[in-house]
Prior knowledge:
This protein is an alpha/beta fold. It is built from three helices and seven strands. Helix 1 (13-42) packs antiparallel against helix 2 (51-76).
Amino acid sequence: MAAKKNEASQMTRSGYERLSKELTHLRTERRNEVARKLEEARSFGDLSENAEYAAAKEEQAQLEDQILRLEATLSTVTVIDDEDIDTNRVSIGLKVTLEDSERGKSFTYELVGSEELSGAAVSPEGIQRISQKSPVGQAITGHAVGDEVTVKIPRGTRKLKITAIER
């Protein structure tokens, strides 16, 4: 997904590298795979009544659209490096532990740029990722340990206390 004009999108370094790797894979291996399918479908003869050819062309169009979207995202995003992150306040790239005292539960999330969620919603360490644009992400961004925030969610509101912020 490309950023809207004049909207600064941010992404962690690891998210940027993951999307860059995905783009390279799409440009090389996937393009070659689709080209092989097209060539094979052409060998079946008359293209006007060739379902395999039509399917391969559709797959090619979807692939090229996906490549364009990734290129646009990567060209407009601001990459946040670990050493630039202030761990005193919640921001992209940090792990945040929240306590929901009403439910007696604690949750740990990694706050990431919304473009990073196109892939895994769980980090390699097993921590749930949430977008800074999500209701919880918006509510906690900029707050410090000990702050309580109120989050509007589809089922009402929740009061959450920030109990830890870490890299």
